[in-house]
Write a structure and sequence with these properties.
Elements (H helix, E strand, L loop, with lengths): L1 E4 L5 E4 L11 H12 L4 E3 H8 L5 H19 L4 E3 L3 E4 L4 E3 H11 L2 H5 L16 H31 L3 H14 L4 H13 L3 H19 L5 H12 L17 H4 L7 H17 L16
Helix pairs in contact: 1-3, 6-7, 6-8, 7-8, 8-9, 8-10, 9-10
Amino acid sequence: MIECRTLGAWELKVDGRAPPADLRWRKNVALLVYLARSPKRTRTRDHLIGLLWADKPEHPARRSLNVALSTLRQRLGKDGLGTDPDHVRLAPGVVELDVERFEYLARVGDLKGATELVGGDFLAGLSLPDAPAFEDWVLSERAAVKPHLLEVLVKRASELLDLGRATEAEEFAVRASRLDDLFEPAVRVRMRARAIAGDRAGALLLYDTFKAQLAERLGAVPDRETEALAERIRRASTWPTVPTVQEEHPQSEPARRAPLQDRVDALERLLGAWRACRDERRRSIMIIEGDPGMGK
């Protein structure tokens, strides 16, 4: 089994140990991760050559691909990496990517477990200047994955705020801001966390700094929700605190509830609206629609 950390600085482990030097060569890592993220974990040889060795003539490029495949096969076994004259395929279960584990945990609502995997951008630090097609793919994957990383970090921060753990909540929101310093939901969580901790001046300084960054870099202004939060903090002589509560066991709140079939996303939207009403003291209406017998 090869485990690959992709959320942040990349790292490989083979059966729990450090990998051999040849497996750490950047194009071998790139080939491994790309195959693992490909549909059905399969690609044509021509496609892989165009991705990683387009700068070489055809015969040297094919030789380079064969050498890379030989290196992977030594670690995965002949059953782990299948090849024929036209295709290359990874067998299920021989390579584990943290990004796929993250996607699963986020989907089932285990925010605590999902956030433990977030170390930074997808494949941070893996650069192949002579393989622009691979570089483009990494940028595309990074753009697709990042919104989910931000969403889960902020959801986990909000969850901790609900438990009265403002310091920990701000730490998660700061991690989101490191990924995208203009991600407004993270700014709001940080403002709320500081206000709950009694640092209203710090909360307003965050708002002013963010507002200036938006104006300078995008020519934009904070949205109404952020402005309303800043105004509430500015006017309040004190900010309501939440008693600190410890989580009962390692699973997150959604995982402790009765399982819902295909309803996790809908439930999270309902809970998000409820938290907004409670924290921001505003009214909202949520309408649940469905045919009779659908379990409304």
